[in-house]
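User: Fold this, then the next.

Assistant: Folding the first:
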Amino acid sequence: MAIVTELVEYSHNGDTLEAFVALDDSKSVAPGVLVCHAWAGRSAHEEDVARRLAELGYVGIAVDVYGKGVHGETTEECNSLMTPFVEDRAMLQDRLKAALTTAQGLDYVQTDNIAVCGYCFGGLCALDMARSGAAVKGAASFHGLFMKPGNTDGQKISAKVIAFHGWDDPMAKPEDVMNFTQEMSAAEADWQLHAYGGTMHAFTNTQANDPDFGTVYSADADQRSWAAFKDFLREVLG
């Protein structure tokens, strides 16, 4: 067994995008798991998640929302990159479906056996794939944003949903969490919420250490959420 990686280009609305793919070369075909990036763009963090998924026997596919080589460095740059997609969720959902279509076209991915996960902004992306009816079996949000897209009200959610949330996250406050749970129930989703006390935003990011901004790594929440995520994937993908 060896984990191999490749970069796969695809396009959407004239933009060139690039996914990072990791897989176990001993498997001819396996379930796929899309990994949606945080607000800075696809980074080493999402690529590492894709590799870890490959070690579990899945095809890890770190997708791209912003464009090939596009990456924010400062808070202002990251916010500028993310905002257009948060404000136009139909555009975001369409771009995510382009990533899904690309994954389905890979010879080594089981086209009808795909899940999605995401971190921070990527958590919102994962949830929007479930909300919009994309052909994913499960959607997992790690310290994600919960605000409703506004274009999926009244739709049922068929994908199973799980959210891993730091209770002290200033970017998703308790009232936002309650709104999310009510939304999921109204959509008749099979949903779970794992909330970690004393935990802020970005708790899976080992580089996060800015309590004033609300982003702090938590080894306990990181490990607990990954263990629960592995169970979730076994349930939805087999």
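Now the next one, as you asked:
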Amino acid sequence: MSATSAEQDGADLSPRQRFLVGLAIMPAGAMQATDTFATSIAMPTMMGALSATITEISWVITAYLVASAMFTPLYAWLSRRVGRRRLFIVVIIGFMVASLFVSQSETLTELVILRFVQGFFGAGLNPLTFQMVLATFPKKHHGPAFGWLQTGRMSAVLVGPVIGGLLTELVGWRSVYLMNLPLGAAALFMILRVVPKDAPEKPQRFDFFGFFALSIAIASTQLMLDQGQKRDWFDSQVIITYCIIAGGAFYVFAIHCTTALRPYLNPRVFRNREFVICLVIDFFVSFIFFGYMALLPPLLQRQLGFPVVETGFVLMYRGFGTMIAALLAGFLLIRFNPRPLIMFGLLGVTGSTWILSNLTPATDVTPIIVAIMLQGIGIGFMSTPTETAAFQTMPPSLRPDAASVMTAVRRIAAGIGVALLIAQLVNSTQRARAGLTENVSHYNERLKHLPLPDNWTMDSIDGMVTLNRVIEKQAEFIAYLHDFQIMTIFTLCIFPLLLLMRTRPMQQQD
């Protein structure tokens, strides 16, 4: 589709038709978000059912994220060749079928492979929803439209943890993936009814070389991050090899993108200043968002003793906060610059991570709910203005590429975030365990005089096993606090980027 035709997309639609199109694409975004957050709730149960460690089970999330990052740019090319509407239908059907197969997995290896396949189809959901919003709504309404879109996604964050917890508790972890089937069916029905057809562009040659170079770079980076802690990082030849392959592949891909006639990832989108700044901010947002997803359910269930269902209800406050904030931010963007809204969101996320970094095993549920609610409000106030500002000055002809790049960067950030935070969790646990063990000795006079439970003793094997379990649990709890401290620092690093933004309220847009 040419730039001219792209600009005319949705020009003949009435406000009611635009509303129906926005409503039609919501279930697809909700389907992906529900799947992701229900998976995070079910992970501790999956660890026990599949006899996996926290590092191994994290691949259930990272395999999906790696596939999404690898294949997201592909959908910019496919949407031009096939058309947005037709491709969206294929992606939804593929995601539903893959979800059905995931629910039947018998081993961890099979589960990870099928999650990768699911990620291939999931890679198309976000960029296609972006494209449909940008093509359906005029520029001055992009803020409220992205707010509605984010609200639809976050409705899944609201109900996903609760439904995922209930299904995991009552039926089993496999059932959480079957939730995608009714959501996918609803999305298909509405898209077929209300989304107008769009004509594909003239076919262009697909850049296989760029695709393989980027895929190798992303896969190698993820393998390096996920196995680094296990293999003692750069003391291992395997990790060094992954690092060399990743660096070389990224270098080759960068050179290829700047010299090829039709590269896999269009470098012209990076000439837009606002888009690049928003891309960096979005990277940090995704790092923090998925970091929460990987850390909070195990912390609540394994450390603080929350049942699966109660964990879902507690995490529901995040979705509630994000829905309200995203919708409010969308309408505020009509009159206000995106920058103060993003700053307000940053303050909310910073406050959330700071509260969580000061938890104790005896903390009641109230500060946890406050922290989770603050995180949801912060993410809502950050994501909607960032998405809107990123496309304010982007030419319509480059929107498919920009949408795919933004989604791919989100997936890369999420994969890196989960891998680094889990690796840091394992490393901090080991260091905390070493520090605690030094004080558990017959030579520690203070320990001898403390009023300890009878089964905490070093005079018998059972007592030593019990004491070791206590040390292990306390060490892991300390490690969780370290991870939240790291996330606080990451959030603070975003503030200077806001000084570089040059944006205007949507009512001042042409």
